[in-house]
Specification:
heterodimer; A: 399 residues; 2 domains; 9-stranded mixed sheet; 5 helices; disordered N terminus; B: 254 residues; Rossmann fold; 6-stranded mixed sheet; 4-stranded antiparallel sheet; 37% helix; P-loop_NTPase (chain B); nucleotide-binding (chain B); AAA+_ATPase (chain B); FeS-cluster_ATPase_SufC (chain B); Iron-regulated ABC transporter ATPase subunit SufC (chain B)
Chain lengths: 399, 254
């Protein structure tokens, strides 16, 4: 046997080897491995360390722009809204001392705690009818000063309802939304962000889903300078089902972020997460983080999460970070998928080969890509209005 | 009467192994209202010819011309070719998520005609064509090719052929993957389109099976990037009995 000299790796300069030195992205090496459910929570902003912008929670967010919501004084007074409601629903301002406050979750970061500690009244939406009920809350006059808001959505046992939180106009808002889906209830919550171009909005949605209950949660973010909506859903009783969908379209200079967390606590729970985004224009930026935690008692869990981004121009950035933690060996399935890419040229060829001009073909493909999420809304008037809004966004897409 | 004239067409494609010449001088003249079958072994360049006529960016035309009534097709964009009256029924049509068949058909029809079709007659026409192709009504609301079976995809291609009414249709292995019932339905669709609009057809196939239902006026045998033999329908019968071996021995020695 002849001796083989294995080639020696070239000697690198001390700092040159990839992975050899600590990353410069905020010193992650110092963060201990931590289960998603064990994050620090508090309603007191002072209990959180000062935010530097290097924290895992904040490092992908333009902290300088949202700073007034993290550290500033917030106006927690009730705000103007308009609403439409059908039978079997009620809307009212309730005091901080209401037992439902804190029933669904606790702040995990400082801006959320800042809002929590300063709201004066919570807007409470209660759904009790077994016939399908609808509530739409329009907020269009929040104004440009820093605000806090708190919303409580309670779906009574076996109720069936859709709640639309429709946001437009200017805003500098940090808010918490608590959602309790009681046993056997079927609730759809749709949060639509069509803010003005200068608006800044941080939202934490906390949901608890009960026995054989179902929550469909949809985030649609189209307008605003910085919009960060973080839904966390806890499937706390057997048979609970969480369907979390999202759609976002970032234009030049826009930052749209969503950090999704699904916690399978109880056995035989189901979750589906599907977020889709499009990015167009210099500085268009999106962030999607999808955490799924399957707890030790969640036998029979069936979970899947996906994020897809369609990049329409140069100069954009999409972060897509799926995380899956499984603490239970006996599950039906758990998977994730993430893809960020440009157009599929074969799509364009097929449509063009049928006579459709290139620019129109492109728009058709993007619209089709996002339509999958719109089709989940199940509310025809809102679906067609949002399709129109997306078509307007597509007006800015170069051929 | 329109004609499509392919003259000394040379086409290459970039592969990992470098540039590969596929078409090596194709000459072919199609008249509207006639059916030409292009038959040949795998890898002989049949599909390349189809996609080159349609304008797929993957295929690079080295030299030659494709003229539709004297106008150079190779200078046109993909969509302009379709609007000029050239249709390619694809072997593997892609899925387009979120775009419904009805939206797609209306958009394509509007693009081809230059104006939106009148709603009622258009819906009636779609319904009629879908019935004839034995397609379920729910088909119109499904997303383009998404979750379609092989047979459904082919029927959907022929549905478009019937509705968009091109002057020339290139059918790229439309028979592949079809059972005999689906093959008959699809063939009837092609024959109907031809009877209604005087379509010229370039029927690309590996097998003679589809020629029992769509009767060619001319048969061209394609070997190694060019037409090796031409004749009438009797040539297809001969291929049925003898296969392509006769051509291959001369061209791909070793």
């Amino acid at each position: 046997m002849s001796a083989v000299t294995s080639p020696q790796p070239p000697v690198l300069a001390a700092a040159g080897q990839h992975g050899n030195t600590a990353h410069s992205d905020g010193g992650w090496a110092l963060v201990p491995v931590q289960t998603r459910s064990e994050r620090f929570t508090s309603v007191d902003p002072a209990a959180f360390d000062a935010v530097t912008g290097l924290e895992a929670d904040w490092k992908l967010t333009p902290v300088a722009i949202v700073r007034p919501l993290i550290d500033g004084v917030l106006d927690g007074s009730p705000y103007q809204y308009s609403s439409t409601e059908t039978e079997g629903t009620s809307l009212e301002w309730v005091d901080r001392s209401d037992v439902r406050v804190g029933a669904a979750g606790m702040p995990e970061e400082k801006a959320s705690a800042n809002a929590w500690s300063t709201f004066e009244k919570a807007l409470s939406i209660t759904l009790s009818g077994e016939e399908t009920a609808h509530v739409t809350v329009n907020r269009s006059a929040l104004g440009g000063h820093a605000r806090a808001a708190h919303t409580l959505i309670t779906a009574k046992p076996n109720s069936n309802a859709t709640v639309v939180l429709q946001n437009s106009g200017s805003a500098l808002l940090s808010e918490n939304v608590e959602i309790v889906v009681e046993d056997g209830a079927n609730l759809t919550v749709i949060s639509v962000q069509e803010w003005d171009g200068s608006a800044v909005h941080l939202a934490s949605h906390f949901a608890r889903v009960g026995r054989d209950a179902r929550l469909k949660h949809i985030v649609v973010s189209l307008g605003g300078k910085v919009v960060r909506v973080n839904p966390s859903v806890h499937l706390v009783e057997a048979g609970a089902d969480g369907q979390l969908f999202g759609l976002y379209f970032a234009d030049a200079g826009q930052h749209l972020e969503q950090r999704v967390y699904v916690h399978h606590v109880a056995p035989n729970t189901i979750s589906r997460v599907n977020y889709k985004g499009a990015l167009n224009g210099a500085g268009a930026r999106t962030v999607w983080v999808g955490d799924v935690l399957i707890g030790p008692d969640a036998a029979g869990t069936d979970s899947y999460e996906a994020n897809r981004n369609l990049v329409l121009s140069e100069g954009t950035r999409a972060d897509s970070i799926p995380n899956l933690e499984i603490e239970c060996g006996d599950i039906v399935g758990a998977g994730h998928a993430s893809a960020t890419g440009r157009f599929d040229d074969e799509h364009l060829f097929y449509l063009q080969a049928r006579g459709i001009p290139e620019d129109k073909a492109r728009r058709l493909v993007v619209l089709g890509f996002l339509t999958e999420i719109i089709q989940k809304i199940g509310k025809g008037d809102l679906e067609s209005r949002l399709l129109e809004a997306i078509e307007i966004e597509l007006g800015g897409v170069a051929a | 009467m329109s004609t499509l004239v392919i003259n000394d067409l040379h086409v290459s494609v970039e592969t990992d192994q470098g540039t590969k010449h596929i078409l090596k001088g194709v000459d072919l003249t199609l008249e509207q209202g006639s059916i030409h079958a292009i038959m040949g072994p795998n890898g002989s360049g049949k599909s390349t010819l189809a996609y080159t006529i349609a304008g797929h960016p993957k295929y690079h035309v080295e030299s030659g011309s494709v003229k539709l009534d004297g106008e150079e097709v190779l200078d046109m964009s993909v969509d302009a070719r379709a609007r000029a009256g050239i249709f390619l029924a694809m072997q593997y049509p892609v899925e387009i998520p979120g775009v419904t068949v009805s939206n797609f058909l209306r958009t394509a029809k509007t693009a081809i005609d230059g104006e939106a079709p009148a709603l009622r007659p258009w819906l009636k026409e779609i319904r009629g064509s879908m019935e004839a192709l034995r397609m379920d009504k729910t088909f119109a609301e499904r997303n383009v090719n998404e979750g379609f079976s092989g047979g459904e995809k082919k029927r959907h291609e022929i549905l478009q052929l019937e509705l968009l009414k091109p002057r020339f249709a290139v059918l790229d292995e439309t028979d592949s993957g079809l059972d005999v019932d689906a093959l008959k339905i699809v063939s009837e669709g092609v024959n109907r389109a031809k009877a209604n609009t005087g379509l010229g057809v370039l029927l690309i196939t590996h097998y003679t099976r589809i020629l029992r239902y769509i009767h060619p006026d001319f048969v061209h045998v394609f070997v190694d990037g060019r037409v090796a033999e031409e004749g009438g329908p009797e040539l297809a019968d001969r291929l049925e009995n003898e296969g392509y071996d006769r051509y291959l021995t001369g061209t791909s020695v070793g």
